[in-house]
Amino acid sequence: MSVYLHMTVLVLYGAATLLYLLYLARQRDAVGRISRWVLTAGFISHCAFTFFRYLEAGHTPITNLHESLSFFSLTIVAVFLGFQHRYRSAVLGSFVTPVALLVMVTSTIFPSAITPLNPALKSGWLGFHTVAAFAGYAAFAIAFCAGIMYLLQEHALKKKKLGAMYHRLPSLETLDDINYRCLTIGFPLLTIAIVSGAIWAESAWGAYWSWDPKETWSLITWFVYAALLHGRLTTGWRGSRAAILAIVGFCVLLFTFLGVNLLLPGLHSYR
């Protein structure tokens, strides 16, 4: 069942991505509605896949890169659907769905077999810590996409070439607001994930913090987003500066998530 659901998710996310890109090109309301319906169907299928995976594994299915990437894709779609409802901006999906699809496709590269749970992971903190982390990651992924859209829109304005793309993207004010909303959602969740991870580490390994590569890069990621939030709240960082930092922050986050696991072995390494 899980295999068929996984394939269904890939097909629906792929179809939704094509439809959202078509909407970006044509701006037809009917295409925007169909895109949302197809993506929602993919999201429901993805939830079903995750649930069946949970039943098969007996724990939160987020303990290897196959499961983690799949769950990351799921949370990206979930957060995006919420933002699309809030801002009524289907065109945001033209940038977000390719990211969610790419993450989901990447999950297929890694082994999908369910293996016995590492003793250190047999804790009630597993679900709480990882769900908080990936929900925060998803919010930052939306900020990353909004940042790219902001820079494209700003470039068109500076060059005074207000072509089709300019008229299809949201206003700079809307994109900056999306960026800020994502930051106010993602940063507290990332903080909760780091704190809960430290508490979990103490119960599993006897120390709250061991400067493991994953812990170190998680802290670096936290500081990047803390600097961005501080700048927005105290010195009025907005616009292109905030957009660029959102993009940089997401790149650092991706290294923390994938790069550390693949390149820097440690207590948190898993594949």
Describe the structure in your own words.
The protein contains 9 helices and no strands. It has 271 residues and is mostly helical. It folds into 2 domains: 1-111; 124-271, no CATH class. The longest helix has 35 residues, at 125-159. It starts with a helix and ends in an 8-residue tail after the last helix. The mean pLDDT is 86.
**Percentage of residues in DSSP E strands:** under 5%
Bulk shape: globular
Q: What's the number of domains? A: 2
Count of helical segments?
9
Largest sheet: none
Low-confidence stretches: none
Termini Cα gap: 23 Å
- H and E string: HHHHHHHHH
Q: How large, in whole angstroms, is the Cα Rg? A: 19 Å
What is the typical, i.e. mean, pLDDT? 86
| Helicity level | over 70%
Structural class: mainly alpha
Topology, number of strands: 0
